[in-house]
Amino acid sequence: MQFPESWLREFCNPPLTTQQLADTLTMAGMEVEAAVPAAPPFSQVVVGEIREAVQHPNADRLRVCQVDVGQGALLSIVCGAPNARVGIRVPVAMVGAELPPGEDGKAFLIKLGQLRGVESQGMLCSARELKLSEDHGGLLELGADAPLGCNVREVLQLDDTVFTLKLTPNLGHALSVYGIARELAALTHTALKPLAAAAVLPSIDAKLSVKVSAPDLCGRFSGRVVRGVNTQAKTPAWMVDRLARCGQRSVTALVDISNYVMFESGQPTHIFDLDKIHGSLDVRWGRVGEELKLLNGNTVKLSPDVGVIADDLAIESIAGIMGGDTTAVGDATQNIYIEAAFWWPSAVAGRSRRYNFATDAGHRFERGVDPTRTVEQIERITALVLDICGGQAGPVDDQQPHMPQRPAVTLRVARAAKVIGMPVSQAQCQDTFERLGFAVSEVARGTGELSVTPPMHRFDITLEEDLIEEVVRMAGFDNLPTTPPIAPVQPLVRSERQRSRFALRRSMAALGYQETINFSFVQERWETELAGNANPIRLLNPIASQMSVMRSSLLGSLLQVLKHNLDRKIDRLRIFELGRVFWRDANVAASDTAVAGIAQPMQLAGLAYGPVRQTQWGEKGRWVDFFDAKGDVQSLLARPGLGFAKAEHPAFHPGRCAAILDGGVRIGVVGELHPRWRQAYDLPLAPVLFELDAQAAMQVALPQATALPKQLPVQRDLAVIVHDSVAHDAVLAAASAAPSPGSLLKAVQLFDVFKPAQAVSGMGPDEKSLALRLTLGDDEQTLTEAQIDAQVQAVLQRLQSQVAARLRA
Prior knowledge:
By secondary structure, the protein is an alpha+beta fold. It is 24% helix and 26% strand. It has 21 helices and 41 strands. It has a 7-stranded mixed beta sheet with strand order 27-30-33-37-36-35-34, sandwiched between helices. Strands 3, 4, 5, 6, 7 and 10 form a 6-stranded antiparallel beta sheet that branches. The protein has a 5-stranded mixed beta sheet with strand order 12-15-18-19-20, with no helix packed on it. Helix 12 packs across helix 13 (464-475). It is elongated, with a radius of gyration of 42 Å. The relative contact order is 0.06.
């Protein structure tokens, strides 16, 4: 909402400076987003009248003007403006005047000079030269009553301030200058000038027949016929200036009058060309197949939930939003019909956005417009039309098929004080509502309860909390006490052993994965096939049939993202999601952050698909496999005690799936997608996925400082034969657990697996050979051969006893 300060002070003029006025409105909930001067600074520019304008002797496009600025002697000024003519009054920059700065940021100083040999004693100014607008087509013509020699800033009120208010949706009653003045009067205990329009006596009997067929669309409809108007009449300069300072350009006199009254009172109106209306008007809902060409040139298709004003042949207007092109007033218009109505907010809300445009009228009607003032606005517009465009007015036709009611709302003063956080009395509350024009009375003596009936223009007052807000607004948000919290505020310091979710996301990004965010409700098929969940949590009101259950796993969401990218020829993908899953757990109790019987843990899942690296010349391409995903999990968790064990999962290949263990506790799973589901989801190749508990993933191992060894380590390699069923983890665990006096055994590493394709001497068909590298060392002394051999024998004995291994010959 944009308006000039001077217009506001015409209705309410409290003894406040401009800044104090802006602060008062802001602290009452009507945020003043900007307060800028109506014009930039300039000096010594006065009103002058051209008394003579003759052709310049040395230039075809220049004239030598004799200008009267009220100082007796005429000034000779050379001017090239096309509208420089005798009799008009224009701004005159005197010698020594400073005009607004140009693009270089420097003020333009007017000096005595010569143009083509003729002395010029000043400068006649256009609106653009004074930075009042971008109009540079000629001199700025002032009113014929502008006093000669008077400062132009005073004549045009250029020292005015233009306010821009950022209003919340519940402040629809403040979408007008008078509405803001009404609030200001209540805030400052200042008198409010009434907005009253004198009734215009009808001089003709002309009326237009109107029928309101949809009372749930239109609660009140008022209209009047005016004949013999001059639509080419010029809009008065004062109205053009005020509209400009409200951010509205001048169009024609009739349109300007309608806009002016809307900004003044908040009541949008519409003016029809009476001669283009066929028969009578019918206010009704639209019908399927109807179309309307609007004033903005768009042709829209109507529907049964869009209100319209129609005549006997066609649709003429969308109710409360925009008029039609067929009945728009133009230069040839002689007779008009002025309409002012109350449209129910629910019947207007969202309609203009459906057609991808917004209007000032729709913005106001969908928030609620005072239904009691439609006749007053008709009278106000009629008076302005007759004054500016002339004509003869008929009687006002007013129909009230469904006027809204304002039920009383009860306010408990004790509750208001508790919500506000400061003591308030019943007298303070009552005074607040009386200043705002509310009808207020005590429910019963001594109860501390007030019955408050809001006025007709306050559509936002429906609850006790709305009344409490009004008490706070009138008190001023800056006057609320600063009360420290009762409970001490203690910062929650995260342990060094735990990283945040953001750090976890950054770690995944560092591994080359991109984050995805998906819905928490998924297809029931995903739960059954990928999570083995036969009884998922169902939604009572799903947004789509394929989103009917809550997910207990993130794998289905990642597969959907993969399929979406494959359909768009993306053949390499690394994605992850950090989000909540939902499953039934009778041990979960209800709380502020939990639902009884429903567990909602955070899970981290990742998916890898396609080549390990982008195609390049320096390395042979390879498709990502189980071990790549396992390596990513190891890099992400990176702590001792991490292990993997063979596992089964409904989503993964039976032989290419492993449980992720942390200290022996299962925290997740990693594996290749089951061939059945790869085929079912129409994937060219199987992706590799993992899913683990996010809380476990957020735990990190702190580094331990150790002294560097003084002696070099010793390495010994062993090749042992074991049965095919023996896992290499079991072999490594057995070797690492071998007795080691003085902790000589530092590490055991598997570096080769041999499984012959044909029979080999010393190995059975169901056996394999594992090559182990033992790292031995002592921090204080060099190892002897005897110590080394003893440690190797201890490892061999432990392997033989625990996994039935034997040394390969």
